[in-house]
Amino acid sequence: MRRVVISLGGSILVKGDNDADHIRELIDGLTSLSDEMRFIIVTGGGRLARDHISLGRSTGADEATLDSLGIQATRMNAWLVLGAFKGKDVYPRPFTSIEEAIMGASSHKFTIGGGTHPGHTTDAVSALIAEMWRADLFINLTAVDGAYTDDPDNNRSAKRIPKMTSKELVDLVSNTTRGAGSHSVMDPLAAMVIHRAGIESRILEGRDVPNLLRCMRGEDMHGTIVIPGE
Ligand code: UTP
Fold first, then answer.
1. Residues 61-97 pLDDT 10s
2. Residue 206 beta carbon below 6 angstroms from any ligand 1 atom
């Protein structure tokens, strides 16, 4: 049974654009592979997290408190996805620690949760789970269709990188700013963990479910392939 960890970005989960259809399509797609694979899904907080963090910051909250706010948003999204898995072989509540995620996955095909501790993002939670669970594959589902040479929203000449090593990914994201709600294609801690653990990884646009399924079947896909190594 292959072990797959999915970091499901909150911004693609709740977008205000056919969200329910997308969640159903995603769950049906993953279920179609569940005879061969077991999944741990980590939901991000998306706009809910960002809006609350920004409001909290403007009323004077410290960064650790803002992180806790963000974690609650990721758990709300975990409940949203969990609810849509009704009737399937799913661990019955969002995990709140890496250990609980792994325990859930020992007896269920699907285990879902959000953030765990202040100071990082759900990408890092996903990567730490992938390391401890000895996952075969880590997939980062995000709003962009892969890792780019620069931020594609701010630099129109930025190019998508179809294939890179985990060390190249660490170098690419190492300049990301820290602090509650900060954002890049992957949290630097997550990149560091997948590099040290030697985990095969993919960065994909999260709404393209057929592409995600091709990726998990080992077929041609659109996105970034991250190969462990220097
Ligand atoms: P996300 O994982 O949603 O951040 O966590 P993100 O990279 O913005 O992801 P998208 O937009 O959903 O793809 C939101 C915030 O929650 C706090 C951090 O402040 C993070 O920026 N958080 C989350 C933690 O402190 N610890 C966690 O384990 C998870």
1. 999 999 999 999 999 999 999 999 989 999 999 999 9
2. no
Range of the domain at 68: 2-227
pTM for this model (two decimals): 0.96
Q: What are the distances in angstroms from CA 199 to CA 33, 90, 115, 156?
A: 20, 24, 20, 31
CA–centroid distance, 14 to ligand 1, in Å, is 14
Number of domains in the chain: 1
CB atoms closer than 10 angstroms to residue 3: 18
224 alpha-carbon distance from chain centroid: 14
Index of the ligand 1 atom closest to the CA of residue 119: 25
> What's the gap in Å between 46 CA and the centre of ligand 1?
8
User: What's the distance, CA 89 to chain centroid?
Assistant: 21
- Left, alpha or beta for 223 (phi > 0: left; psi -120 to 50: alpha)? left
Candidate from 74, 129, 139, 144 with most ligand 1 atoms within 8 A of CB, to mutate? 74
